[in-house]
Predict the 3D structure of the following.
Amino acid sequence: MKPRHKRIAFIASGVLCLGVATALVLNAFQSNLVFFHSPSDVLAGKAPKDKAFRVGGMVEKGSVKRVGDGLTVQFMVTDTVKTIPVAYTGTLPDLFREGKGVVAQGRIRPDGVFQASEVLAKHDENYMPPEAATAIEHAQKASKSLK
Amino acid sequence: MFSLFNWFRYASPQTFYPLAGRMIPWFAGAAAVFAAAGLYVGFFVAPTDAQQSEVYRVIFIHVPVSWMSMFIYLVMAAWGAIGLAFNTRLSFMMARSLAPTGALFAFLSLWTGALWGRPTWGTWWVWDARLTSELILLFLYLGVMALQAAIDDQRRGDRAGALLAIIGAINVPIIYFSVVWWNTLHQGASVSLTRAPSMARAMLAGMLLMSLACWMYSIAVSLARARCIMLERERHTAWVGELAGSAS
């Protein structure tokens, strides 16, 4: 082997080892790298019980309710399989909408309601003009009424 | 090995210096044209977004600079690897000339992301996997630059910087796939090679034009920086002496 080939082999094997090591480390930290837990995770007991965590999913359509002082909001967060009730007092981000993604930070109260101290809107990867959005909405409504 | 001979001819600073000098105006001009077209499409042609209204227009800067920050890092690491393997002087100069531009893009990516995150998510910053790994990328750029500068022996500085660049390259796929592997607040990719883009065509056009502008800009400034490094490092050689002689 020429010294040059030796160096190339050395660099390549180094990068390979590094890649494997990183993959193992990331795999080990899998649960800590998750920014939020889905309602299914939470109800299955996978979320931490004694400290604050984040729950994420969709705001269920028609579930947003203002209670009492008008600042407190209650809504259901769903991953389409399981659903968790969330209570929050404070201002909501602009993109907080029914049927859209949301991430709430807080802890589970004894009564099973998730008391959020912070609510963030999660945007999806779809970008479209308003006309396209209304067209899709109409199409969905049409297909629903056909069923 | 005729083709190899050709490549190594341009690996010599003496032949590459004038070639780079001739290329810079073309790339700089292309960057200006693409940026003007991209900004025009982005601000005047592309429709507003149904959900976010006007604030989404940050993608015309944010997405291209984020792509560039990752891509430049890979190129820098590749130049470092070539330099370590083949002992070519020019590779290390190219690696060094790319680092500041990459760091600038990584910073812009974080900055524009924060400006967008505040109105959209409701927060400037969260420690999710995508944002954190991009922040690490910025620190890696700064680390590579600091390491290169901290070692007085230029050859050893080059090698140490190249090594750090190669090790840090593992972070780039982590940034890119973070939104797929883990639950993150950051949304998934709207544009990827494997499926149709999930955005309106005019929006996509503006973004791609701005990406081209960033490419051209990066090539132009890194070549200009490489030329300065070449002159500085080769100042005792005959060809730089001749250049200086003919200039004065």
About this structure: Chain A touches chain B through 43 residues (CB under 8 Å). Strands of chain A lie at 53-59, 65-67, 72-78, 83-89, 101-108, 114-122. Chain A has four helices and six strands. Residues 96 and 121 of chain A are 5 Å apart (CA to CA).
